[in-house]
Amino acid sequence: MLTLASKLKRDDGVKGPRSSNPGSDSTRRVSVRDKLLVKGTCEVNFPDPNKLHYFLLTVNPDEGYYQNGTFQFEIEVPDAYNMVPPKVKCLTRIWHPNITETGEICLSLLREHSIDGTGWAPTRTLKDVVWGLNSLFTDLLNFDDPLNIEAAEHHLRDKEDFRSKVEDYIKRYAR
């Protein structure tokens, strides 16, 4: 089973070298954006370049049930970051076992407190959040511990009908 930790280790080569020369604010913003991009399937947009604590993440899965969809997430980094996780909401209506139709997300690393130790820790980064959200469409798609129980049960009952409903949601809401 592929976990987020192993995926991050495998793909750690994506990190670029840090520059020792501090650049202008716009250079730093571009640098932050570059660090958050994930294998071309994610795009970061700062609606207000003066509010770097609030940004939108667009995920375009290139495989699996959600392939060809465009899913937008709102990410707000609280003042207490990195002691607490960022607040994340899915803005695109989706039929997914780990995301409700109203945008709530079940991703262990976004939990402030976790019994199993996989929740938020001060050592986690925004890159981990982006990797995690991207992986919800592939590796971390979890039907065994769902937030949207109806979607998970639908998959269990009839995988082809589940796929059909996902494709319908993509056509209606995720283009």
From TrEMBL:
Keywords for this protein: ATP-binding, Nucleotide-binding, Transferase, Ubl conjugation pathway
SMART domains attached to this UniProt entry: UBCc
UniProt-listed CDD domains: UBCc_UBE2F_UBE2M
Disordered, as annotated region: 1-30
Gene3D superfamilies tied to this protein: Ubiquitin Conjugating Enzyme (3.10.110.10)
Top-level taxon of the source organism: Eukaryota
Biological process annotations from GO: protein neddylation
EC number: 2.3.2.34
Domain UBC core: 25-175
InterPro entries (UniProt xref): UBC (IPR000608), UBQ-conjugating_AS (IPR023313), UBQ-conjugating_enzyme/RWD (IPR016135)
Catalytic center residues: C106 (glycyl thioester intermediate)
Family affiliation: Belongs to the ubiquitin-conjugating enzyme family.
The protein's name in its UniProt record: E2 NEDD8-conjugating enzyme
